[in-house]
Amino acid sequence: MAHWSIQAENCKGCGLCVDACPKKILRIDTDTINHKGHAPAQMMDESRCTGCGFCALMCPDCVITLER
Q1: d(Cα 41, Cα 67) in Å, to the nearest integer?
Q2: How far apart (Å, rounded) are the C-alpha atoms in residues 31 and 66?
């Protein structure tokens, strides 16, 4: 099982990771605003994450980390 983490304070909420996730378990957390004024990405169900890494590959700011 993979462990997913994000540097939410540096995420610009572009949604590329959300679109890239084959399991559709990422979303933009509109309830949270970071110091840059953006709503960051959020994992909804880490137990369903396969650790494919598509989200991290698509992130233009390299704020997503996967540990296997």
Answers
A1: 17
A2: 24
